[in-house]
């Protein structure tokens, strides 16, 4: 995804901000001769966040070449299981630890640190020729709950009698969990299937006019990433309205940063970095970096909403 080209731009703009970890590491405890900028760690994340995690890791390693960070992308359930089993010190999740997981860590006298680093959104995508690129939350619930199975029964512009195919990335992913908890996803619907990854969801929807895909918005939100731009040429991102019967197109909103920030786009979720590192080490350095000004600016550039960096919303007025 041309991460290094994006990283170079960010480094040139914000290089002065990189010194904070070097200062921080001077007083670090050592984990097997490791510091906040040197050593080796493994991290896990749900595949929905591969673009932003890769961008953050590449930027960190560019600045600190003695840091070895191996990232693996798994369905969210598998990522947290690996984290609990101590095969990775850091995990990126769209939820905090549940009571059972907290109880386990308490039993081994370890208190993982949870940091909110960004707010993400679930994006719905359709084929470029699908006339229904504007959907209400009511219509989306009709689809996810299998109450409406055919496009021409949805009450939109699509008059096709084709069945609606609902496509997700992977079983047990954060996208599946979100739809299950927030949209009451009906798993008995035979028109639901997992393509295998967010990228494969995009590929499937781009070649199947009857499909609607569910992906992490981070896959199509970075306007400077040529891969993301190529994706957006293949599909249309659905505009969503919280009104059951929207009156105009102005009632629909795509998952842009400003609409996420203002709470206008309805399908959002927080992204957390959870660390189980018992002492100050490379995981601490990476966590501090992502939470810092430069790390948050990388998130801002990716199209997600940073947890701490302010968003400037500009309103244009039509001149009479």
CATH fold-type name of the largest domain: D-Maltodextrin-Binding Protein, domain 2
Q: Got a strand count? A: 12
Task: Tell me what portion of residues adopts beta-strand conformation.
Answer: 15-25%
Count of discrete domains: 2
CATH class (first level) name of the largest domain: Alpha Beta
Structural class: alpha/beta
Order of helices and strands: HHEHEHEHEEHEHEHEHEEHEHHE
Name the CATH homologous superfamily of the largest domain.
Periplasmic binding protein-like II
> Low-confidence stretches at least 5 residues in length (pLDDT < 50)?
1-8, 10-31, 314-320
Shape designation? elongated
CATH architecture of the largest domain: 3-Layer(aba) Sandwich
- Count of discrete alpha- or pi-helical segments spanning 4 or more residues: 12
The main pleated sheet reads as: 10 strands, mixed
* Overall average pLDDT: 87
End-to-end span in angstroms?
43 Å
Radius of gyration: 21 Å
Question: Any overview of this molecule?
Answer:
The chain is α/β, with parallel strands linked by helices. It folds into two domains: about 5-120 and about 270-305, D-Maltodextrin-Binding Protein, domain 2 (3-Layer(aba) Sandwich), CATH 3.40.190; about 120-260, D-Maltodextrin-Binding Protein, domain 2, CATH 3.40.190.10. It is about 35% helix and about 20% strand. Strands 1, 2, 3, 4, 6, 7, 8, 9, 11 and 12 form a ten-stranded mixed sheet that branches. Strands 5-10 form a two-stranded parallel sheet. Helix 1 crosses helix 3 (about 50-65) and helix 3 packs antiparallel against helix 12 (about 295-300). The longest helix is centred in the N-terminal third of the chain and has 14 residues, at about 50-65. It is elongated, with a radius of gyration of 21 Å. The relative contact order is 0.20.
């Amino acid at each position: 995804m041309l991460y290094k080209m994006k990283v170079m731009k960010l480094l040139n703009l914000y290089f002065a901000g990189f010194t904070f970890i070097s200062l921080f590491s001077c007083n670090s405890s050592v984990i097997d001769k490791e510091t906040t900028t040197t050593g080796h760690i493994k991290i896990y994340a749900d595949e929905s966040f591969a673009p932003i995690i890769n961008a953050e890791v590449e930027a960190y390693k560019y600045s600190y070449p003695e840091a070895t960070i191996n990232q693996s992308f798994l369905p969210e359930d598998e990522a947290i299981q690996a984290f609990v089993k101590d095969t990775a010190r850091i995990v990126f999740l769209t939820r905090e630890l549940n009571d059972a997981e907290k109880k386990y860590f308490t039993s081994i006298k370890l208190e993982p640190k949870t940091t909110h680093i960004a707010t993400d959104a679930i994006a719905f995508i359709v084929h470029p020729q699908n006339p229904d690129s504007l959907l209400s939350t009511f219509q989306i619930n009709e689809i996810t709950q299998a109450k409406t199975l055919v496009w021409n029964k949805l009450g939109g512009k699509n008059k096709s009698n084709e069945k609606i195919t609902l496509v997700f990335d992977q079983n047990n992913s954060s996208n599946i969990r979100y739809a299950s908890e927030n949209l009451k996803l009906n798993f008995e619907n035979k028109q639901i299937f997992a393509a295998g990854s967010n990228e494969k969801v995009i590929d499937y929807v781009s070649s199947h006019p009857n499909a609607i895909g569910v992906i992490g918005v981070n896959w199509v939100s970075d306007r400077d990433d040529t891969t993301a731009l190529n994706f957006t040429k293949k599909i249309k991102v659905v505009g969503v309205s919280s009104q059951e019967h929207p009156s105009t197109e102005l009632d629909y909103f795509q998952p842009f940063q400003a609409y996420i920030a203002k709470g206008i786009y309805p399908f959002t979720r927080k992204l957390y970095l959870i660390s189980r590192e018992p002492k100050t080490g490379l995981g601490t350095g990476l966590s501090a970096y992502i939470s810092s000004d430069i790390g948050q600016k990388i998130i801002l550039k990716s199209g997600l909403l940073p947890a701490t960096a302010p968003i400037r919303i500009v309103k244009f007025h039509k001149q009479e």
